[in-house]
Amino acid sequence: MAITVENKDSIPGYVYLVDNDMDYKIGITNNPVRRGSSYVTENPRNKVIDCIQVNTYREAEQIEQELIRKMRHLNSFTNSGEWQKRCPETMAIWKSVTSRYSGGGSVDHSEVYERTRRLEKELESTKQKLKAATPKPTKKEKSAFDRFTDFIAALVLTVFMMTEAFLVLFSTIRVWNGVATIEEVLPVVLAIPCCLIGFFIVGYLFACCWEISIRLFN
Fold it and tell me: Confidence class of residue 170 from pLDDT cuts 50, 70 and 90?
């Protein structure tokens, strides 16, 4: 039922206390079950730990204002009267004020708590279903062309390394025997690494051009 100025004196009101493990929150409502459920939906840690019923919604507003006034020094946030520090003093003030109001009788918390627990289970179940439904990233298999280029690169690298090793060994023997000088064999020894670097640069440019062509024509 929507709250209006006309019906504030004709419908019962409820003053509740919410605990989220860090702070307390004071509030009023005309439907504690629905309000408690909405708090759990906003944050599963929110739990209605106490709730009193009074004769009218206007009386509930007066009690809320009295609680906020007496707990002003316990505000968790600046200029926020509804959120209070989670401490024994807050609970003591709550009990001292609410114990004076029993016109509407006590509230059976079982329905509120049962609905809260049910929503918590539903939220946890939904999280598990979403986690299970999320596809796991799969390793993309290489195409035949990619495997072929990897094979060629490995083969060329192996040939270059074996040739370089042979040239280094052969040049070392020639220098050792006095057949040639270091200046004479050095260009030959350095030719292989330079060719290898050039090969990989050309290969990289070819792969980039291939990727661009695939993106353009597919």
Answer: confident
Per DSSP, the three-state class of 215 is helix
The domain spans of the chain are 13-133, 144-217
Which tokens is 66 given?
A: 């009295």
Using CA atoms of 86, 88, 92, 94 in order, give the dihedral in degrees to the nearest 10.
10
Q: Which residues pair with 54 in a beta bridge?
A: 13
Q: What is residue 102's three-state secondary structure?
A: coil
Which amino acid appears at position 206 of this protein?
Answer: F
For the entire predicted model, the pTM comes to: 0.48
- 8 A C-beta contact, residue 76 and residue 23: yes
Percent of the chain predicted with pLDDT > 90: 2
Shortest CA distance to 54 belongs to which of 32, 71, 35, 73? Answer: 32
Contacts 24+ apart (CB under 8 A), 112-118: 112/32, 112/33, 112/36, 112/48, 112/51, 113/47, 113/48, 115/33, 115/36, 115/37, 116/36, 116/37, 116/40, 116/47, 116/48
Quickly count helices (H) and strands (E) in the chain.
6, 4
24 exposure class (CB count in 10 Å sphere: 0-12, 13-18, 19+): buried
Angstrom distance (rounded) from CA 56 to CA 213: 75
Q: What amino acid is encoded at 5 in this protein? A: V
pLDDT at 104 over 50: no
